[in-house]
Write a structure and sequence with these properties.
three-stranded antiparallel sheet; 211 residues; 3 helices; 18% helix; elongated; Glucose Permease (Domain IIA)
């Protein structure tokens, strides 16, 4: 049976658990309380629940849990084509494991060092540290950005060029608050609006043009 905790969390969870147990054994109750609260928070933060993935033609699922904060038209940073960007803001209480929004082959993977502006800042999409993957579905290309924020300083992105991913498959995470942008073809029929709350791998962002 799979433990619903992202493996990247254990380097925080295990030390905090051990310090909590040690503090209790030494009767340092306030210290035990401090480490215990840290253990509970980090365990909750790195939770990685299973999700029912929609099974519909041309569907685009949310790459992250959070709130849709922006929907704009802009140019794709890799190929320069006009696209629709949907921004999802994750707070510290959201699940931070990211999932691919479409099935396909990873055509490009890029890491751009940069600033650590607040994730909700409009400039964060271009100026912040970020990891970018470009997914080729065989018909269209979809770009996803994991963007660091003011507190989030560690982006984890597993794919390599040429890897094949299934719809909603896990592909990475961002630690402690962040933002994810998904850039879709202009012809995509969106199913979300600004202010909507979404769940990674489960919520439907929209539908790709079948043509």
């Amino acid at each position: 049976m799979r433990i619903p905790i992202a493996k990247e969390g254990y380097i925080f969870i295990i030390p905090l658990l051990l310090m909590t147990i040690l503090s209790c054994a030494l009767s340092y109750q306030w210290v035990a309380g401090f480490f215990g609260l840290g253990f509970l928070f980090v365990t909750w933060f790195f939770r990685d629940p299973e999700r029912p993935i929609p099974n519909e033609p041309n569907v685009v699922v949310s790459p992250a849990d959070g709130k849709v904060t922006e929907i704009v038209t802009e140019n794709d940073p890799i190929n320069g084509e006009t696209c629709t960007r949907v921004t999802i803001f994750l707070n510290v209480f959201n699940v931070h494991v990211n999932r691919v929004p479409v099935a396909g082959t990873i055509e490009d993977v890029r890491y751009n060092p940069g600033k650590f502006l607040a994730a909700f800042n409009p400039k964060a999409s271009m100026e912040n540290e970020q990891s970018i993957i470009l997914i080729n579905t065989g018909k269209v290309k979809v770009l996803v950005k994991q963007i660091a924020g003011l507190i989030a300083r560690r982006i984890i992105c597993w794919p390599d060029k040429g890897d094949k991913y299934e719809l909603g498959q896990r592909y990475g995470l961002i630690r402690f608050g962040s933002r994810v942008d998904i850039l879709l073809p202009e012809s995509t029929k969106l199913s979300v609006a600004c202010g909507d709350k979404v769940s990674g791998g489960r919520s439907i962002i929209g539908y790709l043009d079948p043509s």
